[in-house]
Amino acid sequence: MSNDDKIYQKILTAIVEHQLPPGERLPEDKLSEAFGVSRTGIRKVLQRLALERFVVIQPNKGAHVNRPTRQESEEVLDSRIMLESLLIPSIAQQWTKKQSRLFRTMVEQEKQADLDKDMAKSIRLTAQFHYELAYLGHNQIIAEFIEQLCYRSSLVIAAYGSRDSVCCDSSDHVELLDLFDQGNVEQAQAWMTRHLTHVKESINLEGSNDGQVDFHQLFSDTQKQQ
């Protein structure tokens, strides 16, 4: 893992685990000092996080942790509820034993992340499971849109969710794979709607945190590990 990847992982984990709350400013100079790297290196990491919508970068204002509004959060999750079930029939047509093995391996990785209490990794793997599944369908445009929705809902869960918002997913995903193996398309569609509705209901859109962050203390062990 490169140094940039390590810094990316550290900041992403801090966002997901609510150590860097929505709206928190991410000054390049303080992060540069905390990680012991150049501002250019920090800027690259922030740009990567911005592409995934975890961070917002504004000209002349710098970067801050994205703060999805209540309306945006609900619309993102409602869009997933509507769209992901629509792709189930075409996914089922492409389903093979090879696909089943591949996705079951992904579920095992999710379970391990849950056991390790790595919420950041759990959120990423859960999102990956859903958008990789969408790409098996015939409509690539919808699949690409679902991938973006997965990134955005990951931020919603990171900002307003709890471990329950994530940990329920890895065990539930096995049920969906079983339905695909059995060819139960209608039940798989109903499962997807129920599953994503549960995720939506598990988050608290009233959550907030306005505390001040000490970046050096938060990332104090990073330089020792490099």
From TrEMBL:
* HTH gntR-type domain ranges (all copies): 1-68
Gene Ontology molecular function terms on file: DNA binding; DNA-binding transcription factor activity
Concerning Pfam families, the annotation shows: FCD, GntR
UniProt keyword annotations, A-Z: DNA-binding, Transcription, Transcription regulation
Position of the signal peptide: none
Q: Does the keyword Transcription regulation apply?
A: yes
The record, for InterPro entries, names: GntR_C, TF_FadR/GntR_C, Tscrpt_reg_HTH_GntR, WH-like_DNA-bd_sf, WH_DNA-bd_sf
Q: What is this protein called?
A: GntR family transcriptional regulator
Q: Please report the organism this UniProt entry assigns to the protein.
A: Vibrio eleionomae
